[in-house]
């Protein structure tokens, strides 16, 4: 395929610090210079620097280099929340790529949720563990509903996810915007038992008023 011409359009917006633009390649490109990056049509590209409107610095897999911007930007939209999407779908390959390419594990989507919220919500244990093992991962971020990832895991009755979050320091006594603790959102006795123990909620009144109701279903 013949080389496509350099684009002649106004410079695009530069991503905010700590965020990486993720796009798919529209065309195959063979590097012409040592500092350029070769890629195939459909490859996922992580844009690291857009200061030059014609040539962006990008990574593809473990390789990095300059790419012609018009190979990826004419008729495609960026994946706005790539790590959130990976966590939501339990896609470990995509998640590993995102983390390796410095996509923030603490980024917020439109609901104010982090990727950890979505991994917990889906009970995707590999994704959850991968996120939690990133050194700066924040485990108690509240989204717009006031829910932490622990609330998300509890609401979906994912006992294993709850246990993992607790082991990484998640606090069970945080209330959401409705004044609810994570333990008050679950309908699973095992999940409830883990959260009650962690939160110190062991009174007979609580046990009879909550767990017994669920056992009677």
From TrEMBL:
Keywords: ANK repeat, Cytoplasm, Repeat, SH3 domain
GO BP annotations, alphabetical order: signal transduction
Domain SH3: 18-77
Gene Ontology CC terms: cytoplasm
Localization (cell): Cytoplasm
InterPro entries named in the record: Ankyrin_rpt (IPR002110), Ankyrin_rpt-contain_sf (IPR036770), SH3-like_dom_sf (IPR036028), SH3_domain (IPR001452)
Record SMART domains: ANK, SH3
Pfam families hit by this protein: Ank_2 (PF12796), SH3_1 (PF00018)
ANK repeat ranges, renumbered to this chain: 111-135, 145-177
Positions in coiled-coil regions: none
Protein function: Induces bone resorption, acting probably through a signaling cascade which results in the secretion of factor(s) enhancing osteoclast formation and activity.
Name listed for the protein in its UniProt record: Osteoclast-stimulating factor 1
Species name: Patella caerulea
